[in-house]
Amino acid sequence: MSLKPSSSSSTDGRAAAPRIVVFGSLNMDLVVRVPHAPAAGETLLGHSIADIPGGKGANQAVSCARQGGSVRMIGCVGDDAHGKALRDSLERDGIDTASLRTVAGEPTGTALILVEDSGQNRIVMIPGANARLEADEAALKQQVQGAAFLVAQFETPLDQVARAIAVAHEAGCKVLLNPSPVQAIAEPLWPKIDTLVVNEIEAQTLCGQSADSPEEAAHAGQALRAKGIARVVVTLGSRGAVAVDADGARHHPAPKVQAVDTTAAGDTFLGALAVALSEGQGFDEAVRLGIRAAALCIQQPGAQPSIPQRDAVLRSPMPPDWIKL
Length: 325
Ligand code: RIB
Fold this sequence. Notes:
Layout: E1 19-23, E2 27-34, E3 48-54, H1 56-66, E4 70-78, H2 81-92, E5 100-103, E6 109-116, E7 121-126, H3 137-143, E8 149-153, H4 158-170, E9 174-178, E10 195-199, H5 200-207, H6 214-225, E11 231-235, E12 241-245, E13 248-252, H7 265-278, H8 283-297, H9 310-315, E14 323-324
Parallel strand pairs: 1-4, 1-8, 2-6, 4-5, 8-9, 9-10, 10-11
Antiparallel strand pairs: 2-3, 6-7, 11-12, 12-13, 13-14
This protein binds alpha-D-ribofuranose.
């Protein structure tokens, strides 16, 4: 179902929405709010439990759409109520779900999420139908034609993500990768990535250097960029993000806000970044937009319901100025 223009050109003189293709996961998040994460052997009274649409791929698709992108989602759900709910949820955001496959005999992906009173979360993901996602080279070649970005994560089979990245790169479509949950990236894949978005843990796993402070994140980002990537963002939670490109590294601090639930903050950031870059905004402006979007996201509970619309992001306070590192 396509509710938005699929072309990047417009006949009425207005800039058309940038086309973004998301190759990735969809999960129903089973969200349990708890005072604190239980220790081993501890039994705890929780506050609440709820089913909320999520999954890194779907969240990133929703963020791109709410920031003004024209989005196609390539993924798999099970033939069950959660799968239907996730499809409906994407379609309400105008996302093209024609490439969203319903897999018979597989449950839809599920994420068990504990959210503490502090807003911090702990997530266990059970892939279900996500494990059945395959990169159909011929179809993908057409799907990425004229798109500004292919966006991918690592909640679906790595070999298929690698194949999708290779097809997009070959077709001249830029690749924005969020390698989460983190796994090693094969050497030939690195130069096919245009923009890499990692948190401090993912950065450390991928380059073997600590990325806990902005200065360390800058060094880690430089090491990752040296693998052949144009732009790297290392996100640092409440401390903002470090942007690294050919001009060096900048620390972008985040505005101070009260976190209710940090789930999907990284996905929200990534969607705003992808759309801003697709529109031709500068890297630093795009990172700032992502930080403002993520700051709004963490003030609301849940994954997809907490992802802000663009007008809300544009009304939100500007973060402090960035610092050259
Ligand atoms: O990034 C947040 C997402 O990670 C959640 O929505 C959950 O589904 C897990 O995949």
